[in-house]
From TrEMBL, chain B:
One of its GO terms (cellular component) is plasma membrane. It is found in: Cell membrane. It holds the Pfam family FecCD. SUPFAM superfamilies: ABC transporter involved in vitamin B12 uptake, BtuC. It comes from Roseburia porci. Belongs to the binding-protein-dependent transport system permease family. FecCD subfamily. The chain crosses the membrane at residues 58-78, 90-110, 116-141, 148-171, 195-214, 235-258, 278-297, 309-328. InterPro entries: ABC_BtuC-like, ABC_transptr_permease_BtuC. This is Iron ABC transporter permease. One of its GO terms (molecular function) is transmembrane transporter activity.
Length: 385, 333
């Protein structure tokens, strides 16, 4: 066990970059239920102003980690440092001024307006009878303003929609005025608009108020846009930790979630349903994103298809590869070779029809125009599915 | 402070004052209006009436006020603790547990020729309350559905009542007649000595409860959020159990088990004030509980005077509809 002095010395040596006196830091943390370890050696450090996101499949233990940090579960081993002090040495009332949370558990209310729910965040700062001062109410209203929930603030909390409710829960955590914020799946049950809005608020909060935020998230496409650090929970450990760029490369994410390689495109964040690869019945001439809608429609109708001719850096390449039975492709930034055109023509011959999704042709996709004419000659060209 | 709170509290106080005067004025012994005024003028030309009012009616009224208030606050605490709108000292079997231990203690001591003091009664009732509460808690760890908890509480209540009846039936002493009256629930036979003890106990407990309004408010929203706000949840839970048991023990010791006041009054207060905040509800429940109990006791002793109804029969008639309405309202949300 290091003394605080030692820690401080170490910090100064690290030039403040690994500043262990601020934010949230876990050391050798082991978490689990009923003293049975679930995840061992959790080493996370959330700096002020930054967002750390936990990802991993359902049941991997993201919530267990967050519940342990918020002291709803007792830890099995290790230390949690809150602003540089081990959490064990802090009283609950002291932690309440340094760490706030929004968990998946519903807040139970009776006859409370949204504003009163937000006001409960001021609890640690009120006196014996819990009566809020002018100042407290000002902070409550500021927080409501910040999350754009003013219009529902006076309604009964139980009748407010999930999205607005989540905004109010965030406002409640904001007006608790803490340096650390823990969020367990803050976007679940929300529609896309509210999802983006809540995440934008969270991002802004971290930067503007210099708050250290740790959260779990399921929307992989949003994770890389909002997080400074991503920690992947798998098996009994934090499997990998790094910047989104480090995590979302190669086939790591597919492995993390145990899905096949074709189901997720780490570059665009697109996900694809699994399809059986059968002999193609339709050939799709695509490129530049124009084919995606056609691929999806064919996949919904369960018609196997082939696609081409796509350069490997084409936006729809990943979609075509995931959904199509066969893809005729050319290397990135290269002009299409004659061998590829021949291959595509053979495929058109084997299919009963051909769909051309491309409207515009130029020097880059001359080969596709060539294919279109070929299909027309053969009487196989169609314009829609 | 909201206008609605002031109006509600004003209403409770006006009702309480009205009921107080009504309860002084009516009873098996008729009283004319001039007699009534005479009581205030220290006019002692009717000493019997003066004695009746001073020695019988007033202690009974004060007891109904204090114990009715205590019962309602106890009900509110239990509803907060179990997060269950139909929890109350009677339905959870806590009153019956207290009744059983008090009856056993009384019979045991009467056999030996010892009269039990009112303080001893409270102590016995407190032990009984805690025992029944312990049972309910054990069950509450095992059942997740709150309706089941209430069913179990009612069962516990029946068992305790059955054992009490059994003991009362076979007890030898003639004093047992009193015990029988008491075990049905009644405010009759209160003395000023009783009142003194009850004032101290109920007063202290309700004031302590009032100062727990802040953590109770946080606890109402859910355990994990309360903990995150710095509430010592374990200590608060123990506090809630002790306070609610003490309050219902006090009631049972002096007046026997009284049904439905504990469940229904918190709902009436929420309806009147439009809030569930403990800081409003605790004093509100005390006042409204006093109003309801005083009203029901007045009915109990006047409707078929000189025969007295048991207080629980009256409370059941007036308060069961309130409980049912509250449950239906809860269902809608």
């Amino acid at each position: 066990m290091m003394s605080e002095k030692q820690i401080r010395q170490e910090t100064s040596e690290n030039d403040g970059f690994e500043n262990k006196n601020s934010g949230l830091w876990t050391q050798n943390l082991t978490v689990g239920y009923d003293r049975i370890p679930l995840i061992r050696d959790v080493e996370l450090h959330v700096h002020p102003g930054e967002i750390l996101t936990l990802i991993g499949p359902n049941g991997s233990g993201k919530s267990t980690i967050l519940k342990t940090i918020t002291k709803q579960l007792s830890k099995i081993a290790g230390t949690i440092y809150v602003e540089g002090t081990p959490a064990d040495k802090l009283k609950d009332s002291e932690i309440s001024k340094q760490l706030s949370m929004v968990m998946t558990e519903r807040l139970r209310t009776e006859l409370m307006t949204g504003r009163e729910v937000v006001a409960s965040g001021r609890y640690p700062y009120t006196g014996k009878l819990g009566i809020l001062s002018e100042e407290d109410w000002k902070k409550v209203d500021e927080a409501i303003e910040l999350v754009n929930a003013k219009e529902v603030a006076e309604q009964d909390f139980r009748r407010i929609s999930d999205g607005q409710r989540q905004r109010l829960m965030l406002a409640r955590a904001i007006c608790q005025d803490t340096q650390i914020l823990v969020l367990d799946e803050p976007t679940s049950y929300l529609d896309m608009g509210f999802k983006l809005d809540i995440l934008a608020n969270i991002r802004r909060l971290a930067r503007e108020k210099n708050i250290a935020i740790i959260m779990s998230l399921h929307e992989l496409d949003l994770v890389s846009k909002i997080s400074d650090t991503v920690a992947c929970v798998k098996g009994d450990k934090i499997d990998r930790i790094g910047t989104p760029e480090e995590i979302f490369t190669g086939d790591y994410i597919q492995k993390l979630y145990g899905v096949d390689e074709m189901s997720f495109d780490p570059v665009t964040g697109q996900v694809f349903l699994h399809v059986e690869k059968k002999a193609p019945e339709v050939f799709v001439i695509g490129g530049g994103g124009s084919g995606i809608a056609v691929y999806q429609k064919l996949q919904r109708k369960q018609i196997p298809f082939a696609a081409g001719i796509l350069q490997e850096n084409d936006v729809e390449f990943a979609a075509a590869r995931a959904l199509g039975s066969e893809v005729v492709s050319e290397k990135a930034f290269s002009s299409i070779g004659m061998d590829k055109v021949e291959k595509a023509k053979q495929l058109i011959d084997s299919c009963h029809s051909c769909i051309c999704a491309v409207d515009e042709f130029g020097p880059q996709n001359e080969a596709c125009l060539n294919l279109k004419e070929y299909a027309q000659e053969k009487g196989k060209l169609m314009y829609s599915v | 402070m909201k206008k609605r709170y002031i109006i509600s509290f004003g209403l409770f106080i006006v009702l309480l004052a009205g009921l107080f005067l009504w309860n002084v004025g009516v009873g098996s012994v008729e009283m004319s209006f001039s007699d009534f005024l005479g009581l205030f003028a220290k006019n002692t030309d009717n000493p019997t009436l003066y004695q009746i009012v001073w020695k019988i009616r007033l202690p009974r009224i004060v007891a109904a006020i204090l114990l009715g208030g205590a019962l309602s606050v106890s009900g509110f605490l239990l509803q907060s603790f179990f997060q269950n709108p139909i929890a109350g000292p009677y339905v959870l079997g806590i009153s019956s547990g207290a009744k059983l231990v008090v009856a056993l203690t009384m019979i045991f001591l009467l056999e030996k020729g010892i009269m039990i003091s009112s303080f001893g009664m409270v102590a016995a009732a407190f032990v009984g309350s805690l025992l029944a509460m312990g049972f309910v808690l054990l069950i509450s760890f095992r059942v997740s559905r709150m309706s089941l908890l209430v069913v179990c509480g009612i069962m516990i209540g029946y068992i305790c009542s059955a054992i009490t009846d059994f003991c009362v039936t076979f007890a030898s002493d003639s004093n047992i007649v009193n015990l029988h009256n008491w075990s049905m629930g009644s405010f009759s036979g209160m003395t000023w000595d009783n009142i003194r003890i009850m004032t101290v106990l109920v007063g202290v407990t309700v004031v302590v409860t009032f100062f727990l309004a802040k953590p109770i408010g946080a606890y109402q929203m859910g355990e994990s959020y309360a903990r995150n706000l710095g509430v010592n949840v374990k200590a608060l839970r123990i506090g809630l159990i002790l306070l609610s048991s003490l309050l219902s023990a006090c009631v049972t010791a002096f007046a026997g088990p009284i049904s439905f006041v504990g469940i229904a009054v918190p709902h009436l207060v929420k309806l009147a004030t439009g809030t569930a905040k403990p800081i409003v509800l605790i004093p509100g429940c005390f006042l409204c509980g006093a109003v309801v109990t005083l009203f029901c006791d007045g009915i109990a002793r006047t409707v078929f005077a000189p025969t007295e109804l048991s207080i629980s029969s009256v409370t059941a008639v007036f308060l069961v509809p309130v409980v049912i309405a509250a449950m239906l309202r809860k269902q809608k949300l």
